[in-house]
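User: Structure tokens for this complex, please. No commentary.
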Amino acid sequence: MKRSLRIYIMIFKNTERKIIGALALIIISSFMFRVINIHFPAFTAEEARIAARGYTLSYQGTDELGRRFPIIFNSLKDYQLPLTSYLTASGVLIFGKTDVGARMPFIIIGTLIVFLTYKVSSYFREEKKFRLLTAGIMAFSPALIFLSKTPNESIVLTFLLLLLFYFLLYRKSRMMIVVVFILAILTSKIAWFILLPFLFFTSWLLKNNSKRFFFSLVLLIVMLAFFLFLTIPQSKRSLSENNFSLFSNITIKNGIDRLRGQGIQSGWNQFVDRILFNKSHFLTVGLIHWFSHLNPSLYFGQIDEEGEYSLSHLGAWPKIFLLPFLVGIFLISRNGNKKHRLFLFLFLVLTFPSFLIYPNLTLDVTILTLPFMAMVIALGFVQIVNWNKKVAYAGFTLAILELVINLCNLSPEYKNTNTLRPNWIQPVVISVFKTSKINKTAISDDIVSDIIPFIDWYTPKANEVNNLGISWPYKFRQYNLPNIKIIGSDEKFRTCGKDEKLSLFVSNRDMNKVKGEFHVQESVVFKDNLNNEKAYLLAGEVCLN
Amino acid sequence: MLKLNKRHIILFLIIILGIFIRFYRILDFPVQLNHDEVSQLYDAISIAQTHKDVYGNFLPSIFISVNDYKSPFYTYITSFFYLIFGGGELTIKLPAAIFGSLIILAVYFLTLKLLENENVALMSSFLTATAPFEIFFSRKSFENVVGIFFMLVGFALLLLYVRKKSTKFILLSNFSLGIAIYTYYSHVIIIPLLLMIFIWIYREFFLKNLRQILYFGLLLILLCPLFIIIMTNPTARYRSSDVFIIQDINLGRNIDFAKSTNHFINFFARNKAILDFSFNRYLEQFNFAFIFANGLDFTNQGLLGMGPLPLMQFPFLVLGIVYLVKSRNHMKEKKFILAWIILGMLPSGLTFEQHSSHRSIMVFTMLNIISAAGLFFFFDYLRSVKIRIFSYRLILTILIFVFSINYLYFIHMYFVNFPFEKSQDLHYPFKQVAQFAWKHHDEFDQIIFDPLFGEIAPVVGTAAHYYLAYYGGYPPAKFQKEYTKGPKEREILFDNFSIRKIDWREDRNLKNILLIGSPWSLPIDTIDKSKIINTLYFYNRKEAFYAIKL
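Assistant:
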């Protein structure tokens, strides 16, 4: 121990080396935080779909619907853009069909974000200690750690926007910047809305001479993306439902009509009522909704109650970081130059798409702001260090402690995400897979909300998929598995014939149906994280009509 | 002798405007006395006439009311108003409306002491006079309006004391803060905490004048009865535990998820769950949508509502924060403003409701002061850049227009949409039910009223006995004697009234009875239409209650 410490001191005895050593330590620890307990968090159905798709893409060259190397993928929410799926495929190709394979590309990206933040924080201060602190803060963001462990678009887009900021800040070659633009366009539709204002604002902020060139280019690329996308069937529906839902949401129009109608009913002048309640309220609602994304409770309280974007009882940052953040804002407002003060508007630019997406919060855009927020927190921390070192160190220790406590006691998290991230489904689908090799097998479709991605991902070898002939699948729910029958709600049961043998994995819904008609005994019961019975194996007595 | 100048005249006009907005058709809007108002009014009449509340408790220090254990000040002050103005509905409205108007002056006074800028003080008094939350709470007899007034005056006097070092100011301040504590439960915690922070901020002054701290003894003396009440009366603690965050169903679920077989882990995880949840709830109070869009809960239309502060005030609030941050003056006062906001959100952040604007009034009041600083900063900037007079006037005109539209929107929301959308929250039409019941009082052996009602989902309306007693002009002394709890579910009896759950299968066989119930308790489609002698409606004309003659 002492020897290794001596070696460490010898290597890092000058300041420069110390900085490199500290940075390496931060990056390694951020990597470790992401790698330890790699099976957590369990996948949602969408993440399992991407993971399973990564496998089919890398080993068969097709997606889960049998299409060869497509550029638009299926999900139950929206069309999915390709970069995330192909990144997952690269991980699975290298590490195999394992959690490491599906998660590793995102773990690497999550770790690189920490390093990139170190680089771009020079925007505020050149001092390396400050930059180290920023990287350290990034390394311990619960939301970023969480998102680095699952296949998702948010972490990739955060990385690419940060990379763009870095390239613009350090005046890197135009070619590299263009490549990043294109990658961002291929990551998420949110990028199509952000890239233009982000580039415009950032180039202006950083006084980049090539801003006209970039602006024209991005305008062209974004327009091209929209144009090509609009040639796809259901594209208008996709945009309307997912990106312009403010205008398609009927509750706002109904609300305007109702409030105006009440005025007319009460004898108010119709003209005044029209002035007060009209379509401009769409903009007001959009604006309020947009600004609600900068709610401190999202950042420091609870970013996502459901547990999709982070640990469900934590904000994007540990609670204690609220204080340095406020100090940071205070310092920027008070002492910062124009360049620093304008930086705060970057938060509005990055969250802009939420203006158009109503009524749910678009947490993806909140995630995009985190690296930039880390710099503000770091500014505050430096000030606190100047005031009282012990308090600052205690604060940082507390932040790490909060994170560690939450990561060590995951039982409440598993219970809270029982439905969204059903890790208990793994033994069910493995059992289904094993049984399907021996008998005909059927499984209820409501054990979890979308069972097939879990079967595809958790079973050792994916089922060979024939092309279903669906070129542009939009919110397509899969029901096609070669050896396994999916039981829908309208399925009827009967007693099996003499030589018939069917293994049934039924949910409570179907179990109640079966019990109403037959005398059966389940051979295996599967329970969820709340210890509720979720699935039953019925072997050989009951068959499907 | 105070010399009148232009600013005083403007302040006077602002106060007149504030009084007008607070009193204009106050008996018509809100469209009915809510359950808090009617219970406090009838208790006040009872106190004035018999020195007992309606349950026969002699000069109670806490009013049981509708089992929500109300703080005493507002009821007692209403008793005083009753002696002057009689028992009309206006009597319960007057204290809040008067103190709500006086708050304009108090805000002016406090701002002047905090920031020592007459223009900012004037602007803050204007914003207070026209603030949606001030108007809303002043017109609905909310007791905290009185509390906030005394709190503002108390701290303004304290600031004056620090500047002028005159003993009378600290004595008056203590007296004022003492009253404030008696008006609203959360002030019991908030005011002493704020006072401690005040002393800490001005510690140099107080250290130099250590003997002066002894004057805070007056406050302690004033608070003695309150402490005795809290220590000796378990019901006093019931109220705080009843609304505490631990009652939140989501927190309950989180605690349940955190359970462990290990005693230590269980203890730790439970408290961690409470801490996580409370911290988030607290921060949630600073939600933009809550403050500027729908915090007053006027409508059921999501973000199409009204916040405690008008939306157009937001840019000036931001400018005000920037102005205060950048300014190098009044450092101590700014620390106090910050403490005021941080502490002021605690009551709302630690209760079971996700948002409760009525618990955060003190914060919104301070946000008005900051916005006023922002307005001043904005005009100061315009003057400093020396824009042309035409541009200046144009900007001013646009501002006035935009603010006017925003205030017109608020007026529409308050006078039109709020009654339409939320009349149920005011227990509408309990007043009409009471008046109808009394009209037919002598025709029936018994009148049974089931207060289960609702437009979308059923809720049991509280204070039905108060509505019946008050609107029937029933003598409190007689009510105290007759009030009993009956054997049936939720049954309260007095005179020939029975307020209880209707069980139609049994009650249909009663004779010479008037049944008043909602569609939630009566199978209205199966009842002979000739028996339905009246239908009582919500404000939006949806059916609320049916009167059935048996």
